[in-house]
Design a protein that fits this description.
113 residues; alpha+beta; five-stranded antiparallel β-sheet; 1 helix
């Protein structure tokens, strides 16, 4: 039986690089973050994309973050505090829906006097 990610052990990880990746056609701009960590003397690496906007980054090279790793496969890990693109996408979808509904509502009342 597998342990849920939320219950994996934590350890400190050292950030090696934080690179801004500009937005392109099918993706938001984001940071590509690479880090390493040690468990019982063994070194491991990890990486993730963080979708914090460029002006609000909280991640820095040589910074330390707390990651979680899978106890039975220590090379599997994740950073639970990363900012995903999901929220940004949902906001964009919401804005688009509000705009579409507004246009439909406007068109339906346009001919009324």
């Amino acid at each position: 039986m597998s342990i849920p990610k939320e219950q994996w052990p934590t350890t400190d990880a050292l950030i090696h690089s934080v690179e801004w990746i500009p937005p392109c056609r099918n993706d938001w701009g984001h940071y590509s973050v690479k880090y390493s960590y040690s468990v019982e003397g063994e070194q491991y690496t990890g990486k993730f994309n963080d979708y914090t906007d460029q002006t609000n980054s909280y991640l820095r090279p040589d910074g330390v973050i707390s990651i979680r790793y899978r106890p039975d496969k220590r090379a599997k890990n994740y950073y639970p505090e990363r900012k995903s693109a999901t929220v940004r996408r949902l906001i964009s979808i919401g804005v688009g829906l509000v705009f579409a509904i507004s246009m439909i509502w406007y068109q339906s009342f346009k001919g009324c006097h």
